[in-house]
TrEMBL record:
Any Gene Ontology biological process: cell division
EC number: 2.4.99.28
Localization of this protein: Membrane
Recorded catalytic activity of this chain's protein: [GlcNAc-(1->4)-Mur2Ac(oyl-L-Ala-gamma-D-Glu-L-Lys-D-Ala-D-Ala)](n)-di-trans,octa-cis-undecaprenyl diphosphate + beta-D-GlcNAc-(1->4)-Mur2Ac(oyl-L-Ala-gamma-D-Glu-L-Lys-D-Ala-D-Ala)-di-trans,octa-cis-undecaprenyl diphosphate = [GlcNAc-(1->4)-Mur2Ac(oyl-L-Ala-gamma-D-Glu-L-Lys-D-Ala-D-Ala)](n+1)-di-trans,octa-cis-undecaprenyl diphosphate + di-trans,octa-cis-undecaprenyl diphosphate + H(+)
Entry annotated with the keyword Transferase: yes
Keyword annotations from UniProtKB, A to Z: Cell cycle, Cell division, Cell shape, Glycosyltransferase, Membrane, Peptidoglycan synthesis, Transferase, Transmembrane, Transmembrane helix
Recorded family membership: Belongs to the SEDS family. FtsW subfamily.
Protein name per Swiss-Prot or TrEMBL: Probable peptidoglycan glycosyltransferase FtsW
Main location as per UniProt: membrane
Topology within the bilayer: Multi-pass membrane protein
Transmembrane segments: 14-35, 47-65, 77-95, 169-185, 190-208, 276-302, 314-339, 351-372
Superkingdom assignment: Bacteria
A Pfam entry, by short name: FTSW_RODA_SPOVE
Length: 401
């Protein structure tokens, strides 16, 4: 049966296997982490498990449909997506649901469901950049025809996301810069604009609605807000409360962990099912489990790089590179926060953290990467058929008497 299913899944088989492993691991980790949330909401943990399973199932359907569509169609779709994304980001800032002084979500009318518009923006911008870079390769050094239109779209999306979600905006800008470098945009031009974007980001942080949160997180990470040891401080009031609990989870996990479902820090760590799920995984599965999870994301990036090097078309190359870098950098950022290598950001772990739109848009991105890979396989199959020697025609003449 498994062989039957795998035969219908085209594209890079290793990416499919990695996605299946991460999704299965996600079910175990989320089920183990939602106990406190279920208690607060007065609901059973099974309900959250069923909801998460449903989202993963829908994600697989979207991934399958996305990988069946020829990736070249996404060039045209990207224009429509960008036309929808910019107004949606602006609408979210003005009228979106505000949580912790950040307007990041839109409520879908009649359903009560919310989705984060930055998830759509990440996918739209990367696909749009891939289209622009592939079509402007002949005039890529022209500032007016290539550089300004491309950087204009990047900076526009950056500003609209950064106002409420700086961490996502910074990561998306970083991925965009990598894509521009691959697309042969002048390094000097990128450096000048990047300096301007950094200045713009500082201004947004300084005057934005979440400036106090940003300052507090950065100060806490660098130890500026540490109080004197003689001053009694409640652990709950500690600015490093989240980071400290994550470190406790990692430290107590040891080499092989406490076992699935045996986490202790899930009861005190904020958002153990999303932002800090990596810390819970290390606590339950140990350092070995944490390294295996890291290896899966690195293996995914390696497979994406193989697709990049094998793609015969520039658009496919930029698609696989941009989407692959985006998902991998997001995963590494989440892990870095959990182990104390970066300030708290609130970025989910792709395909593992509990979430709605994050998993769905990630699934579509994976489907697009697999579509590029599927196209490469089909071209290889045609080349092999063309190389096969054609059977000689046997002309049967008259038989002598």
């Amino acid at each position: 049966m498994l062989q039957n299913i795998m035969s219908k899944l085209k594209g890079d088989r290793w990416i499919w296997i990695i996605v299946i492993i991460l999704s299965g691991w996600s079910l175990l980790a989320v089920y183990s982490s939602v106990g406190t949330l279920a208690y607060k909401e007065g609901k059973g943990t099974e309900m959250y498990l069923l909801k998460h399973f449903s989202i993963i199932a829908i994600g697989f359907i979207l991934m399958y449909l996305s990988h069946k569509l020829d990736y070249r169609y996404y060039a045209g779709i990207s224009k429509i997506l960008m036309g929808i994304t910019i107004p949606l980001l602006l609408f979210t800032l003005l009228f979106g649901s505000s949580v912790n002084q950040a307007s990041r979500w839109l409520t879908i009318p009649g359903t009560g469901m919310t989705f984060q518009t930055s998830d759509l923006a990440k996918l739209s911008l990367i696909v749009f950049l891939a289209r622009m870079l592939s079509r402007k390769q002949e005039e890529i050094k022209d500032v007016k025809k290539a550089f300004l239109p491309i950087m204009g779209s990047v900076c526009g999306v950056f500003v609209l996301i950064a106002w409420a979600n700086m961490s996502t905006a910074v990561m998306l800008f970083g991925v965009s810069v990598l894509l521009l470098l691959i697309g042969r945009i002048s390094f000097k031009q990128i450096a000048i604009v990047s300096a301007g974007v950094v200045l713009l980001g500082i201004i947004v942080v300084s005057v934005g609605p979440r400036r106090a949160t940003y300052y507090s997180r950065v100060k806490s990470f660098f130890g500026v807000e540490k109080k004197d040891d003689a001053t009694p401080v409640s652990f709950q009031d500690d600015k490093n409360y989240q980071a400290n609990n994550a470190k406790i989870a990692i430290a107590t996990g040891g080499l092989f962990g406490k076992g699935p479902g045996n986490s202790v820090q899930r009861n005190v760590l904020p958002h153990p099912y999303s932002d800090f799920i990596y810390a819970i995984i290390i606590e339950e599965y140990g350092t070995v489990g944490g390294v295996i999870l890291l290896f899966l994301y690195l293996a995914f990036m390696y497979r994406c790089i193989r697709i990049v090097t094998m793609s015969p078309k520039a658009f496919g190359t930029f698609l696989a590179a941009g989407l692959g870098f985006s998902l991998t950098i997001q995963a590494l950022a989440n892990m870095a926060v959990a182990v104390g290598l970066g300030p708290v950001t609130g970025v989910p772990l792709p395909l593992v953290s509990m979430g709605g739109t994050s998993i769905l848009f990630t699934s579509v991105a994976l489907g697009i990467i697999l579509s590029v890979s599927r196209n490469i396989e089909e071209l290889k199959g045609k080349e092999q058929l063309d190389e096969k020697p054609k059977p000689k025609k046997v002309v049967i003449g008259s038989i002598p008497a």
